[in-house]
Specification:
Two copies of one chain form a homodimer. By secondary structure, chain A is mainly alpha-helical. Chain A has a two-stranded antiparallel sheet. In chain A, a hairpin with a 2-residue loop joins strand 1 and strand 2. Chains A and B meet through helix 1, helix 2, strand 1, strand 2 and helix 5 of A and helix 1, helix 2, strand 1, strand 2 and helix 5 of B. Chain A binds a DNA duplex through helix 4.
DNA sequence: TTTCTTTATCGTACTATTGCAATATAGCAA
DNA sequence: TTGCTATATTGCAATAGTACGATAAAGAAA
């Protein structure tokens, strides 16, 4: 018997997957780490912090920015990047939500 | 002037990126959602839950399993999957850690 | 103005991911 | 045994991601 496929993806599932995907590369995790650890918002120092060429770092920054995980503001001829707390919070809440749901139940394996 | 690249990625950064990458697809988020919401650990019902063919679902389950996000146990000729809480917790802790670091500082943009 | 500095974009090569039909495997039922 | 059910694997086509050299853009400095 052929079953009907029950559903496509919800907007929330799409959103969370986009955020996770943006975080799904060590270079981008390293950028987030770095931005979180630096007192002020630093721009192109990230290039010196990573084992990657400048265009590659720029590309990773663009992806993080597109996902809403970081913000960039122009400062002279440099650009100041920093983490967008709100987006990170949204992601954390979703993950916490899933985790809580499991802990409430008795898992069977 | 040519700067030396300061570092490569830490093991933690590699691990977290792997977890994020595994979560970086709506189908795999939907699987996690479903596993979290179902009272008992269900196996191939996931195929009926998603708009994907069985081999594709099997592939996504394999990736989640490889990342350590889910566990599978054989039950007759079926396989019972469930979320690996420990891995999810590890991921959540890391994300929480980054978020906390930012909130402590005054971000500048 | 010219030059330097900083970041973004383009073009391209390479690699990885996604999805599925077909097939294989493995246990259960008869 | 044969057939059925549940998953996994293979093979392949299409798409997406990664990395970087070359170059562009745009403000700062001289």
């Amino acid at each position: 018997m052929i079953y009907m496929k029950k559903k496509y993806y919800s907007q929330e599932q799409l959103d969370i997957a986009t955020l996770a995907k943006a975080l799904g590369h060590p270079a981008r995790i390293a950028i987030m780490d770095y931005l979180a650890s630096v007192n002020a918002c630093i721009c192109g120092d990230i290039v010196n912090e990573l084992p990657l060429a400048q265009p590659t770092v720029s590309q990773h920054l663009k992806e993080l920015k597109n996902a809403g995980l970081i913000k960039g503001s122009i400062e002279g001829n440099a650009i100041c990047y920093c983490i967008n707390e709100a987006t990170l919070e949204k992601f954390n809440n979703y993950m916490k939500h899933i985790t809580t749901k499991i802990i409430e139940k008795n898992s069977c394996c």
